[in-house]
Amino acid sequence: MAQRSPVVLITGVSSGIGRAIANAFAAEGFEVFGTSRNTQRTEPIPGVELIPLDVTDPASVTAAVSTVVQRAGRIDILVNNAGFGVLGAAEESSIDQAQQLFDTNFFGLARITREVLPYLRAQRSGRIVNIGSVLGFLPAPYGAFYAASKHAVEGYSESLDHETREFGVRVVVVEPGYTSTSFESNATDADSPIGSYAPIRDHVKDVLAQSVRAGDDPAVVAQVVLKAATSRAPKLRYPAGPLARRLSLLKKFAPAGLLDKGIRKANKLTSSPKPTRIGDPEANLV
């Protein structure tokens, strides 16, 4: 009897990185299920069965995972890719907006992971691949809540990996850098704009748009995901692409001051102002 291909569930395959990941697994002969909030408006992917899923809706999460198990009999690999960004200064996002972002980028990931894990534990094998970002270990001026959600994914994944190893389940994080997708155009603007931030905010958004256009092809990230999902000896973190690998090394080895200056230069921000003491009348605090 021929061995059945491993079953992969990938969230957020309608475009960009998620779509590239689905294509990569399908090309390698995996049995692939891809999710989208609206499958009717998602262009079909050869070799991929599309199922509806809203990661912010617990009932939708349960239904999606149940559908995969009913049709395939098991799940071997979960790739958590669904997410979105918010562009603007941290002060410009309401707490409601920040909670909505976390509900997708972090709690949505946690919801579907909790739904899939009982199946992986029962079969005593499996792999969970969480799509993080270099912003999961670096700051993102004018993208603080997005970066915070990716920092949360890093911490959650590292802790979860220790908990699930005894059941034969490993958890890894793939960390892309700038990737040529519609991320910037699909990102949401901060909902409480403040005039003081406008000039620099708009400037940083232009820098981001240029960087995304010049970024890695999503297929580069997809190949790293494929490697992370199938490695016999998985690492916890997989930087995806040349820039991500360089930034990962800089985070580990560069002096903090040099890294700080590099972040400001990369975002084309002004030099940090001269330090002043709290209470100094010349500090001009507002």
TrEMBL record:
SUPFAM superfamilies: NAD(P)-binding Rossmann-fold domains. Belongs to the short-chain dehydrogenases/reductases (SDR) family. Pfam families: adh_short (PF00106). CDD domains: 17beta-HSD-like_SDR_c. NCBIfam families: PRK06179.1. The keyword Cell membrane does not apply. InterPro entries: NAD(P)-bd_dom_sf, SDR_fam, SDR_oxidoreductase. Keywords: Oxidoreductase. GO terms for molecular function: oxidoreductase activity. Residues 267-286 are annotated as: Disordered. The keyword Repeat does not apply. This is Short-chain dehydrogenase/reductase. It comes from Mycobacterium cookii.
